[in-house]
Design goal:
The protein has 338 residues and is of the alpha+beta class. It has helices spanning 30-43, 94-104, 119-125, 198-204, 212-226, 247-256, 274-280, 309-327; strands spanning 2-8, 20-27, 47-50, 56-57, 62-69, 74-78, 84-89, 128-129, 132-133, 138-145, 151-155, 176-185, 235-238, 244-245, 263-264, 270-271, 287-288, 291-293, 300-303, 336-337. Strands 6-7-12-10-11 form a five-stranded antiparallel β-sheet. Strands 1-2-5-3 form a four-stranded mixed β-sheet. Strand 17 and strand 18 form a beta hairpin. It is globular. It binds uridine-diphosphate-2(N-acetylglucosaminyl) butyric acid. Uridine-diphosphate-2(N-acetylglucosaminyl) butyric acid is lined by residues 129-130, 196, 226, 237-238, 241-242, 261, 273, 275-276, 279, 284, 297-299, 334.
């Protein structure tokens, strides 16, 4: 177990923002997670559980305990139906797991290639891209209950997954330390190519029916072309969630903005890409102080160098106001603002 006092969080947030915490604890197995839970109980200080910090905006020093899982490990079990159950430590890097599955011929995660972050976060925030979400693969989540140190497990259903959402973000917030996530992968490859420009990107390379490895490579290329590399430019991926509006609102906007991109979500309503709205407001590529809007994907806010959390807060609040004024729609951060 690693246990540091007055620790810098710079290496633990991809926005590249300097902030410190009172205590930082990293656990490597279930017993250490239980010990960390005990420390949290005794200290009675505020708690922040982080993964790779790829979905985090720090606006101040944190006067409490930051916990991080460094639990590694992958155990695969073949089911009678040929499908694979893959149990992964919550501290494994998500994209390493996708690469491993593609290499082994276990299918279903290809569209989630190159999403930053770790296995634990995949289960907390239901990461998603190109029409696939972690919830489509998650079979069960194992965790340590902080209040008791008990080892518990939850089925996919119990986690109540929704768009970038689960019970771990609400009533279970700061109650559990995720230790392992088991994904169900398929032994047969049925690619999901319908979202965005996947099909056209494959066609541009002369590929009509991709292998899983080709699909992964294409997704990686699409993401690399649009999204800034956090090792070069601090960012936290999509900063805002895409709002889902009722059909009446969509129809009013569609009449006003013919060609507005949108995704029909059935009974839930219609999803409007926040990136498109932000671009329409003239923010794409613009900066406010040391924070800016990425010039190739307006949903992504970037650290232009030396930004503080508050620089990013000033920018995101201005964007929210402008989108509300132009479209009458409220957009909300997807990142965890501390
Ligand atoms: N668009 C614009 N201008 C922009 C950005 C987007 O007009 O600056 C339009 C695009 O042309 C497209 C639509 O908006 O018609 C959607 O854009 P895109 O496919 O790039 O995806 P997104 O809705 O902006 C979501 C996820 C991403 C995920 C992509 C691909 C959220 C909050 N974000 O972004 O996830 O990679 O779809 O599936 O749902 C993340 O969560 O960090 C993330 C990167």
């Amino acid at each position: 177990m690693k246990d540091f006092l007055d620790h810098s969080l710079l290496a633990h947030n991809t926005f590249g923002i300097e902030a410190r915490c009172h205590r930082f604890i990293e656990f490597y197995n279930i017993e250490e997670a239980q010990a960390a839970a005990g420390i949290v109980r005794e200290a009675g200080l505020p708690l922040l559980i982080v993964g790779e910090g790829s979905n985090l905006l720090l606006t101040r020093d944190f006067s409490g305990i930051v916990l991080h899982s460094a639990i590694k490990g992958r155990e695969a079990t073949k089911q009678a139906d040929g499908n694979i159950m893959l149990r992964c430590g919550s501290g494994e890097t998500w994209d390493d797991i996708v690469a491993y599955c593609v290499e082994k011929g276990w299918y279903g995660s290809e569209n989630l290639s190159l999403i930053p972050g770790e296995v634990g976060a995949s289960a907390v925030q239901n990461i998603g891209a190109y029409g696939v979400e972690a919830k489509d693969l998650i079979y069960k989540v194992e965790a340590v209950e902080i209040a008791t140190g008990r080892v518990v497990e939850f089925s996919n259903k119990e986690c109540r997954y929704a768009y970038r959402d689960s019970r771990f973000k609400h009533e279970w917030k700061n109650r559990y330390l995720v230790t392992y996530v088991t994904y169900r992968l398929s032994s047969s490859f049925t690619p999901d190519l319908d979202y965005g420009n996947i099909r056209s990107s494959l066609e541009a390379e002369g590929i009509a029916v991709p292998t899983a490895s080709q699909l992964r490579q294409t997704i990686v290329k699409i993401r690399e072309a649009k999204l800034p590399d956090p090792r070069v430019t601090g960012n936290a991926g999509s900063f805002f969630m895409n709002p889902i509006v009722v059909r009446d609102v969509y129809e009013r906007l569609a009449a006003q903005y013919p060609g507005m991109p949108h995704y029909d979500m059935g009974e839930a309503g219609v999803k409007i890409p926040a990136g498109w709205m932000i671009e329409q407001c003239g923010w794409k590529g613009r900066s406010l102080g040391r924070a800016g809007v990425h010039d190739r994907q307006a949903l992504v806010l970037v650290n232009k160098g030396g930004a503080t959390g508050n620089d990013v807060v000033c920018l995101y609040k201005r964007i929210i106001e402008d989108v509300k004024a132009k479209f009458g729609i409220d957009i909300h951060p997807e990142v965890n603002v501390i």
